[in-house]
Amino acid sequence: MSDDSDVLVRERIEAELRARGIRLGLPLVLVDETGSTNDLASEEAMKDIAHGALILADRQTRGRGRLGRKWFSPGGQNLYMSLVLRPQVPVERLAAITLVIGLGVAEGIAGFVPGVEVGLKWPNDVLIARRKAVGILVEASMSGALVRHVIAGIGVDVLQRSFDPEIASIATSIALHAAQPPDRTTVLVEVLGHLQRRLEQFEREGIDAMLEDLRARDATRGHRVRCVAGEGTGAGIAQDGALRVQLAQGELVTVRAGDVHLL
User: Fold this and answer.
1) Is domain 224-262 annotated with CATH 3.10.450?
2) What is the pLDDT of residue 72?
3) Residue 65: what pLDDT?
4) Cβ neighbours of residue 185 under 8 Å, at least 6 residues apart?
5) I want to staple 63 with a disulfide (CB 3.0 to 4.6 A). Which of 68, 71, 77, 263 is the partner?
């Protein structure tokens, strides 16, 4: 349960976003509980809700990650949200948007855990001290070759201090690394500010402009990984946002789909 100091309040969130000139996250749909914020965001997108709208829930009952995996979503502790985006980018560039979102989120939470490594595990996880603290699920709706909208689901472990046994060895939260754990609204506003900056940069300049920053946060580089092509060592993020892996037998491969596991 959340205590009174960490209740998510629509008026406070909206006021803090406006005070900082952050448009991403408005309009805001805040609910106590939903099955999945991505599902709710998809419904709102079909009703033509504005670009940048945020669906935020205190808890989810059917949260999901990539490949249909369950996302553990206890109430009162974390952030469960989905953004409705209508990015003005060519379809061929859209695949990189997950990395762009990951970078923005990583930058948004890094200030709460100074001195602790905050990295990106390609393609959709943010790690604190090499444990997962953020999961991202991006779902695009297409009409022929046109992008109708993109739903960016983001789950941030903020205050949670204990995890189900099946993920306890790989999961973490901001609170477990912060000298003074921030409240959820503070984290939300900071993350949205960084996301807005990166998404606007992506529309203007593509992923090229942020490759250096992405590579600096690449949690796979120089580490043993397993990908669809086999086991090897992370060899960096390619120019188009794909992941390069040096396989154990010496071949350098480029990974553009599927999961990558740290070994």
Assistant:
1) no
2) 62
3) 53
4) 6, 8, 9, 12, 13, 16
5) 71
Return d(Cα 80, Cα 54) in angstroms, integer: 10
Residues in the chain: 263
CB contact at 8 A, 38 and 44: no
CATH class, range 4-216: alpha beta
Do 192 and 24 meet the contact criterion of CB atoms below 8 Å apart? yes
pLDDT in tens, 45-69: 999 999 999 999 999 887 655 545 5
The ranges of the chain with pLDDT < 70 are 1-5, 63-72
In angstroms, the CA 121 to CA 31 distance is: 30
Q: Specify the pTM.
A: 0.93
Q: What is the pLDDT of residue 53?
A: 99
Core vs surface per residue 5-31: b (16+ CB within 10 A) or e: ebebeeeebeebbeeeebebbeebbbe
